[in-house]
Amino acid sequence: MVSTESIPARRNVAGGPTADDVAAGVESPELRSLREAERELFPPALPANGAWPSELGAPLSSASDESPRVHATGLPPAPRQAPPARDGAKDLSWLEKLTMPDLPVRWDARVVRYLEFFKDDPRGRATFTRLYRRSGRYRDLVRRALKRKGVPEDLLWVAMIESGFDPTVRSPAGALGMWQFMPESGKSYGLSQDRWVDQRLSPQAASEAAADFLSDLHRRFTSWDLALGAYNMGYGGMAAVVRRYNTNDFWALARTEGSLPWETTLYVPKFLAIAVVARNLQAFGFGDLQLDPAVEFDEVHVPPGTALTTVAGAAGCTAHEVETLNPELRAHMTPPTGESDAAGYAVKVPAGKGTAVAQALSRTRHDQPALERYVVRFGETLEQIAQARKISVAKLAELNALQPGEVVRGGTVLLVPPQAAAPAQPAVATTTGPKPVVIVPAQVFSYPDKKRVFYRVVVGDTLKEIASHLEVSVDDLRRWNNLDPAARLMEGMTVQVFVPKTQDLSKILVATESDAQVLAVGSDEFFAHLEAQKGLRRITVAAHAGETIETIGKRYQVPARTMERINRRSRTEVLKSGETVVLYVPNGTGGSSSSITASNDAASNGPLPTPPVPDLLPPAP
Question: What helix, strand, coil percent values describe the chain, rounded to 5?
Fold first, then answer.
């Protein structure tokens, strides 16, 4: 068993999230309890094809055959069936007295089993009680969103199944928020996701998106049973199953072996049962349940870069209260806003505090430094941005609530001070120092219609990402730089790239050939650079018969391990007379083996930098 103290060490070794990190998720105790009970009620090891318990017909009143009956969703009325037999069978006549939700209900055996679970099983009663109480926080907000989109308001119970009405829940698969949107589906429905804001966490925005999503699913399948199943398993998967098994009846698919995921076969019955119970609280013994108070708030437009602690101070409440009302604000401050949002970001504050907050912030606004939006170029570092804006990296991090070790990628929007007007350029350019050295493979590449540029790797870069931004293939990038596509790129490496001469590189930080001193590996210039960099001289000597590289190294005070690394052969291998041996020896005299070791092993790189936050790195290739 691995101790919790070793977790950070494991992440550093992995260079990112460990396998255990990826597998971890968050689920409320109530939903976890419900899932555990489901494995007992509906074992996932299904019987043979068609062996599900037969569907139950709509229960009939014993008094009259003219009583209303519930039919299957979108299907012709099923033939009337007699009430369940009395010879040992359960009496289900109580079902007919229930008020139905605003979605069609199929009396499948699993729906009835869930109803009995919530009605009679202590676990089911406790689970429904806690989840239904919590629904009071957002049910009115959700119902308004559903009503605006013209879809059944009882769809609000999808949020109960997905998250237990908790807007901060994250699934192991990466789904987030009260409606459990995956990143791509969230973006498809207009939910912003960046380092500042993740609207999947916003109850308002996510509910509007979920209403649109559910409406679109219904338009695709014209069956709420299939639409709800598709919400759980994905509409592409559901459409494929419908075609593969040649039926558009969810309940027929749910009885067919291997067609739908086990979770999906229970998802729709569970939803329908919850919707029925919610419409019949008294009948199920929940008539006295008290809902949690609805989350109420005012909205105030706040300037970019305003900390939520500042908003809380203006509202006279705790920062936690404001953060709870604005879970989508990941940096705990208002994000940069575009030209279309000149009024600022709409922050939620406790109900009744809006006017006071607006007035308080307007009084302090003139004390705040002027800031503007800046889009980070691919390959650009915080140090470079800070230098260009004449501020410290620490101040830049403070303005943007950057966490220690947070990786800022190209395309990220930051708040920065306005750039001062550029000074007049001198008539004659002055030398600013030696050009940076770029090491490239010995192989020469020539493309008459292309130009060579150099990109310096920053933390988290991958070959695929670099190739995508520079519009070249990963294979070409690998070939031009002798790179292993399966290995992670290290910060500070430089890659050469050949791009069309007319390609727009304004959003990428690259250097041209005129900006760098290019050295091919193995060239005289390359060795001269190494000598100057390490304070060493490269010399060659001719071996005498019977010598080894270890004995030659001893004459020049060069350690055997260094001799092996330079000459790429064993220290004990017997040399032939006249064989050439390469050594790196200290400039001047009196160089010791310790100084050589230091030069070769550490001095050229200096101390290791502080590692980035591993969770913010992309996964290894």
Answer: 40, 10, 45
